[in-house]
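User: Just a sanity check before I run the rest of the batch. Below are the structure tokens for the first item. I only need the designed sequence back.
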């Protein structure tokens, strides 16, 4: 604990001595920096700040208004919506529009307190501006004159006109107000290339998220002109909303154009497919394939069955007609006809056959009684022949109709066979055409739904930007803040003042302490006298005795001691005079008790080898005299080297100080 306290005291003491020696440097640097800070604070132009806050709602998903309607929305391929909006705020397109709205590629340079709205009616800068400087002067005759001062190639008067009239120069169209009392007579307008102004203002228009959990963004801007500052922030808000809407409208418009193109093409293909299906159904006769196939098979089965029955009937009729042709009697021949199913229920055939049988019986009876030429017999035969012909006509007519029916059935069955053979192929074609119509119809339906969803998405997208805080200037300028600036300036000046102390102390190469002397010459400091107010060296009795004790006796019995200055002999002579005064004050008895009266010599300065040689040749002890804070390390090292080479007897050093306090610092 005691060691730590010693170290603290040593550190404090060291800095105390540094401050005492270098306070002028510290105070000078402090005053300089504080003066600069004060000058900047009290002469700086006020800087105004305007800000606005917007709440940005999340746009609907890219695939539609439902979160599940787009598969790619699950992977976040569209990026973070808020991050995309922040990129729009920092985009070059937005900066270009803001620069164009505020004519920021032309800057007015006027005295403090005078801005655009106080000196100009309007000023519009086109994108054709170049880097140039113009001086505007209100002349004594009331006109306004504009002169170009840079670049020198186009220097001279470029515009002149009455206040309120539009003057065009360097890509700028400006109308100046009339000069009034207190207004400056001359101002400057500096123009920049449009792209350069965009690059600068793009960095100055700030936008940041107020909080990580909130979709709220703050737009801010700082400038010397309060009206221009407010105008820039308002323009940034308006242009951002416009740009955001335009980008999203272009995105939605492209999507809707693509959807409408697909919908139109699909609708055209659907119409063609429906017409082709209708034509195919008309030519093939297929409408409902399942029902029609079932009905066709049923009709085919019925037709085949009817054909077989008709063929059976035809065979039966042929057999009956053959038997009729082979029968001995008509009644016997036509009796089998009645047994045929088709004639069994026919009353006409039955009546004719009954009459025929009755006539046969009557012929048999008459034939037994009459001759064949008998009139009654001939009448019965004629009637039998007539009935036979009638029955034969009926049978042949039935057979003829049955043959036609069989032919028609055969043709119908053949047609149905061909129809059944073509039915699978036509069914497949019908299914393919119906499937194409269904697919195209589904595509048209989905596309129309997507178009409606995209229209709704546009409405929701363009309505989700809310202005929470409109553009507004802060109550007071953000710069300069005089109290805070003075405090910061004081702190900075104090730090630099301390650094100046340290740097000045570090840069000082002079010899100051006894440790410095021992490190350079390897000799002790015998005395550290200080200068009096009259400029004389004040040497204490103890210090004088110490110096005299270093003197040696020569062959004549005289004590000798050589005092040598490092760079000049003035300091050595001053110390020698102090020693002589000390010797003069000694009493006669003290002088008689001494070994002799020293002869104090002052050698030449030791910045040359001849001086060191002279000191060595004298054979007396040499004491080097230094000036604290004035003698430099290089000179002391050189003097020590000369003495060593010459073989001089260096016994010690006298360090002359400015005052008593400096003398105490020698032993620190």
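Assistant: Here's the designed sequence for the first item:
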């Amino acid at each position: 604990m005691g060691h730590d306290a010693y170290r603290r005291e040593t550190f404090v003491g060291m800095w105390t001595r540094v401050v005492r020696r270098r306070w002028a440097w510290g105070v000078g640097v402090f005053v300089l920096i504080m003066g600069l800070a004060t000058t900047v604070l009290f002469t700086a132009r006020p800087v105004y700040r305007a800000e606005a806050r917007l709440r940005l709602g999340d746009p609907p998903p890219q695939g539609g208004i439902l979160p599940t309607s787009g598969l790619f929305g699950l992977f976040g391929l569209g990026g973070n919506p808020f991050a995309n909006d922040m990129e729009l705020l920092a985009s070059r397109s937005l900066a270009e529009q803001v620069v164009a709205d505020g004519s920021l590629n032309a800057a007015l340079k006027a005295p403090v307190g005078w801005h655009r709205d106080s000196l100009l009616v309007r000023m519009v800068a086109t994108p054709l501006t170049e880097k140039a400087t113009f001086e505007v002067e209100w002349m004594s005759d009331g006109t306004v004159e504009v002169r170009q001062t840079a670049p020198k190639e186009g220097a001279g008067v470029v515009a002149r006109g009455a206040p309120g009239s539009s003057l065009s120069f360097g890509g700028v169209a400006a109308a100046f107000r009339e000069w009034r009392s207190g207004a400056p007579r001359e101002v400057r307008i500096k123009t920049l290339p449009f792209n350069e102004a965009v690059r600068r203002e793009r960095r100055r228009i700030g936008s940041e998220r107020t909080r990580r959990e909130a979709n709220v963004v703050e737009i801010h801007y700082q400038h010397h002109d309060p009206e221009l500052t407010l105008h820039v922030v308002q323009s940034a808000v308006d242009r951002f909303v416009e740009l955001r809407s335009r980008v999203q409208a272009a995105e939605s418009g492209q999507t809707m154009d693509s959807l409408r193109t697909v919908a139109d093409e699909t609708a055209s293909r659907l119409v063609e497919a429906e017409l082709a299906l209708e034509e195919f159904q008309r030519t093939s006769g297929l409408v409902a394939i399942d029902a029609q196939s079932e009905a066709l098979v049923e009709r085919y089965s019925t037709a085949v069955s009817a054909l077989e029955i008709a063929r059976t009937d035809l065979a039966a009729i042929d057999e009956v007609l053959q038997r009729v042709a082979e029968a001995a009697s008509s009644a016997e021949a036509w009796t089998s006809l009645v047994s045929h199913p088709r004639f069994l229920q026919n009353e006409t055939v039955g009546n004719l056959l009954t009459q025929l049988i009755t006539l046969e019986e009557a012929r048999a009876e008459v034939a037994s009684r009459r001759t064949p030429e008998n009139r009654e017999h001939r009448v019965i035969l004629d009637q039998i022949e007539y009935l036979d012909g009638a029955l034969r006509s009926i049978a042949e007519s039935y057979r003829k109709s049955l043959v036609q029916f069989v032919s028609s059935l055969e043709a119908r069955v053949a047609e149905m066979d061909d129809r059944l053979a073509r039915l699978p192929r036509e069914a497949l074609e019908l299914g393919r055409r119906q499937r194409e119509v269904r697919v195209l119809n589904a595509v048209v339906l989905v596309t129309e739904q997507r178009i409606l969803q995209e229209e709704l998405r546009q409405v929701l997208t363009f309505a989700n930007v809310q202005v929470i805080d409109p553009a507004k200037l802060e109550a007071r300028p953000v710069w300069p803040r005089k109290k805070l600036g003075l405090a910061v300036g004081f702190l900075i000046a104090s730090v630099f003042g301390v650094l100046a102390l340290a740097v000045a102390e570090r840069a000082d190469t002079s010899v100051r302490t006894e440790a410095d002397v021992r490190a350079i010459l390897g000799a002790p400091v015998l005395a550290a006298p200080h200068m009096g107010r009259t400029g004389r060296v004040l040497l204490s009795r103890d210090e004088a005795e110490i110096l005299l004790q270093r003197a040696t006796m020569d062959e004549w019995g005289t004590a000798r001691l050589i005092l040598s200055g490092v760079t000049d002999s003035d300091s050595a002579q001053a110390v020698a005079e102090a020693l002589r005064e000390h010797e003069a004050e000694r009493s006669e008895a003290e002088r008689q008790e001494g070994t002799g009266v020293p002869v104090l010599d002052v050698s030449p300065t030791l910045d040359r080898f001849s001086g060191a040689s002279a000191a060595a040749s004298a054979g007396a002890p040499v004491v080097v005299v230094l000036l604290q804070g004035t003698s430099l390390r290089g000179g002391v090292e050189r003097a020590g080297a000369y003495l060593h080479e010459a073989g001089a007897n260096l016994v010690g050093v006298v360090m002359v100080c400015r005052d008593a306090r400096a003398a105490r610092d020698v032993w620190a």
